[in-house]
Amino acid sequence: MNRRVGLFGMEIDALRMQEATEQVLDWVDRGEHDCRYVVTPNVDHTVVFQHHEGLRHTYANASLVVADGTPVVVASRLLGRTLPECVTGADLVPAIFDTVTNRKQDLRVYLLGARSGVAARAAEKIAADWPTVEVVGTYSPSQGFENDSAENDVILASIAEAEPDILIVGLGAPKQELWVHRHHERIRAHAALCVGATIDFIAGEKSRAPVWMRRAGLEWLHRVSQEPRRLSGRYLRDAWIFPRLVWRQWRSQPAPNWWVQARSCGRPLSASTLHLVRWVRAQSRPEMRFRR
pLDDT digit string (tens) for 7-60? Predict the structure, then answer.
């Protein structure tokens, strides 16, 4: 069983990318009829999770929960509940494809999400770059489809007919997680990956941030520059709330080992650690005053 880390009310699997990849492919190799699903919490998921009962229930029943975002991983280390690395949905899917291609292992996938025509372009890209991966079906749902039982039946029937090993779901959060959880007993695939804009990235519809920005935890800035109207408000809200969640957990738990050891032996903390601690505290002060 994977080691799980308790953060912000979620239980997150402490896995590296290769370990997550092997876990998903193990489900495929077993050939079980139950569909296991993967969710990838980032800062926005974490914020929404605090007040969304449906999302909390969805996460509690997920087979794999991996951290999608440098801020979540950095917070885990600050809180002494270390996650080894980011396992983003946008990286997990190519990692799975790379692994099966290197092994010359066949893999059948179904793409659910993205705008009309985008999934078809992604399928062409997958066929060109990963020859052992076969896209056996695509579907671009209409707006509000999740509330249309007839369209849901059509989608589930299409997936069942295609018989994929993995369902790749790119509907945006929390819609994709809620939909997969609601229907996972009817999804005829060994695994479902809730991976946001991954289909768009593969198709070239949207560009990912440069590697250096991802490693620095600045991918959000790249995303905002691409879609300012849609994402600016969300990221401003998250930047206001997430530090308070970190501070709340810091105050509610025993001091992490790295902090105790540094204080007890008089060893100075690194400049980056001190900056992070001060930033979290500064961001949290308005809430503390309000509580008083």
Answer: 999 999 999 999 999 999 999 999 988 999 999 999 999 999 999 999 999 999
Alpha helices in 103-227 (DSSP H): 118-129, 149-162, 175-183, 198-203, 211-215, 219-226
Domains of the chain: which residue ranges?
A: 4-213, 229-291
126 to each of 70, 191, 201, 233, 290, how far by Cα in Å? 27, 18, 11, 33, 52
What dihedral do alpha carbons 281, 237, 241, 3 form, nearest 10°? -120
**Cα dihedral value 237, 210, 191, 145, nearest 10:** 50
Contact present, 121 and 203 (Cβ < 8 Å): yes
Separation of alpha carbons 226 and 228, rounded Å: 6
Of 75, 102, 24, the residue nearest 256 (C-alpha): 75
- pTM passes above 0.90: no
Distance linking the first and last C-alpha atoms of the chain: 43
User: Phi and psi for 191 in degrees, rounded to 5?
Assistant: -150, 145
